[in-house]
Write a structure and sequence with these properties.
Layout (H helix, E strand, L loop, with lengths): L3 E5 L4 E8 L2 E8 L4 H16 L8 E5 L5 H18 L3 E4 L1 H13 L3 E9 L2 E10 L2 E4 L4 E3 L11
Parallel strand pairs: 1-4, 4-5
Antiparallel strand pairs: 1-2, 2-3, 6-7, 7-8, 7-9
Length: 155
């Protein structure tokens, strides 16, 4: 069975999750500007709770954005270092796609318009449609003022 480590630092929240033996463990903290200090200790906490070494991880996923540039850069740096040291694959995942997939899982919806505050009166934006059990991007992710957001036309 695959052991997957995932982390996200693209927003004010810092989160780390571990999938091991079919069980998901996680840590989530809203800690603006403290991601760099907390992300690795959070990883160590999860590994300790699961009772496994970092070397047991088969792959590492991370929120590739959109999101705060510094936060995304922290995730990329941490994941790149871990993956290089462990010689493991890296799985970049869209933060907007993650929101859409969660909406499907928790609410059973098949169409999702996902948005994240991009500051400066703009939003990161994407629309997703359910295809074969997975939320897929319908159109393109964008950053724009909220009043310019448009839903994609029906296929």
């Amino acid at each position: 069975m695959t052991t997957l480590l995932a982390l996200d630092t693209a927003t004010e929240a810092c989160s780390v999750a571990l999938l091991h033996e079919g069980r998901v463990l996680g840590r989530y903290e809203v800690i603006p500007r403290l991601h760099a200090q907390r992300v690795l200790p959070m990883v160590q906490e999860l590994l300790g709770e699961a009772g496994i070494a970092l070397s047991a991880v088969d792959a590492i996923a991370f929120g590739r954005g959109p999101g705060a540039f510094t936060g995304v850069r922290i995730a990329v740096g941490v994941v790149q270092g871990l993956a290089f040291a462990l010689q493991r694959p890296v799985l970049p995942v869209s933060n907007l796609a993650l929101l859409a997939q969660r909406a499907h899982r928790e609410r059973g919806v098949g169409l999702v318009a996902a948005a994240i505050d991009a500051r400066m009166d703009e939003v990161y934006w994407g629309c997703y449609r359910l295809e074969a059990g997975e939320m897929r991007l319908a159109g393109a992710e964008a950053v724009l003022p909220p009043e310019r957001v448009e839903l994609p036309r029906a296929a």
